[in-house]
Design goal:
The structure holds two protein chains of two kinds. Chain A is of the alpha/beta class. Helices cover 34% and strands 23% of the residues of chain A. Chain A has a six-stranded mixed beta sheet with strand order 6-7-8-3-9-10, sandwiched between helices. In chain A, strands 2-1-4-5 form a four-stranded antiparallel beta sheet, with helices on one face. The longest helix of chain A is centred in the last third of the chain and has 16 residues. The longest helix of chain B is centred in the N-terminal third of the chain and has 37 residues. Chain B contains 13 helices and no strands. The chains are: A alpha/beta, B mainly alpha.
Amino acid sequence: MSLAAHRVTLQAGSRTLVDTLDLVLEPGEVLGILGPNGAGKSTLISMLAGLAVPACGQIMLDNQLLAALPPLTRAQHIGVLPQGDEGGFFGSVADFVALGHYPFGVAVLDLTPLLAAWELADLAHRPLDTLSGGERQRARLAQLAVQQPRIALLDEPLTHLDPAHQARLLAWARNDADAGHSVVLTLHDPNWAAGHCDHLLFLYGDGRWQLGTPAALLTPASLEALYGAGTAALWRKSDRAQPV
Amino acid sequence: MSSAAKLLLLGLTALLALALGLMAGALPADHELAMQILTELRGPRVAAAFACGGLLALAGALMQTLFRNPLAEPYLLGVSGGAGLLALLGMAAGLAWLWVSVLAFAGSLLALALAAALGGRLLARDHTPLLLAGVMLAAGFGSLIALVLSVAPIERLPGMLFFLMGDLAWTSNPFMLWAALLLATGTALGLSRRLDVLQLSPLKAASLGVAVAPTRWMLFTLAGACTALVVAQAGSIGFVGLMVPHALRKTGFSGHRVLLPACALAGGSLLVLADALARTVIAPRELPVGVLTALLGVPMMLWLLRKP
């Protein structure tokens, strides 16, 4: 199942964030979206998910217009991790995670393996609002995993996660892609992007965009073009293993 | 305890409350007269109290889900204010109770329509404009009510105050209220899975396949209709709609499939008991039942909030 954007333009008010984007997301692919704050990353995620309509252009799921799909059908294929906000949920972690199954109807789910995989087993019966930020993020990821979307769109999935869980998430994304699904994630760290993405999309926030492999795009010069002069040094100085 | 067991327990509590409601208060020694009081006065009133309490708690649960906020309650959007204003105007003009009731119903619908027209545009993404419009309307109606009270004929003030605090003495139609309770609970139950998802952010709910705006409008309409009906029959009985759903959520009724019928049962039981007290504590005089629900509700709520 492939998701394609044809000549898609995103606008915020009168400002053009992304101009005539062409993008094809194939099964087995992990695509990373990078760009400064306000460049349209979250907006693009919403558009690709079919939750908002672009100013121009079309989004196609295989050969069907995404906007024309019934919401439930769409939800059986495409899953989204929006940026955190579950202030209105009063139930337990297990109840929260199980909501990911909504598009597929009523079922008795065995959540045990999944909760264990996201290290939520001990928290399963706690009210969601008593969890820490990182634990809650894991619950949201587990909820998405219940949905088993063939196309997963994750908006800043690394937020609140400690490095070990960041690594676990990116490994999950890789495994999910290797199983024939597609994963899109927005992120800010070029090191993670280099190690875990097949392709990268740079959004400059002024209409310009750039699509390519990490090797081609993650150069100090292009990172400075994306984030501003002097920013490449932020990663060069790091004493981690450096793709940059 | 399983959900079914919890609901069964609440069901038994409801039966007990109804029995207590029927027994509360003096009865004449004459058997025939006593039966007449039970079947023609006390029975209908107890039945109406149960239905009103159930409807209010149900509306409260729906409002809390609509606004994703445990402080939401049936009167949040000015329903009681709109009803109160028109009802008080009717009372000031000396209209019969039936017309006051009709005016109260019209006032509720007016308040809801205004809230929807002023704040309902972006409901697919953001419920804040609706909330703000409603809260502003409630404040506006509140000041108009104060105005009516300050110029109304003094001998009509007690009746007006009873209406504003909520009072079951005038309820005339328990059958309609029960039909509404059953219909509303059934309709809400039909939406229950969707409502579970709607507790998530609008974007997440939409990504799971829920049509957010239509579902929110359904919630708004259903909660509004339940509340308007109760206000027209019994004035603005406070606290049931805020406390019952909140307390049930705190005690582990989280899925709407269980929460909604639990609200109907617990809200009904609470109001029957409160009304029994309102009828008896200073008998032969009566208190407005709204005073009792608040007196019972505030300490219970504070106690619940202490729990982590």
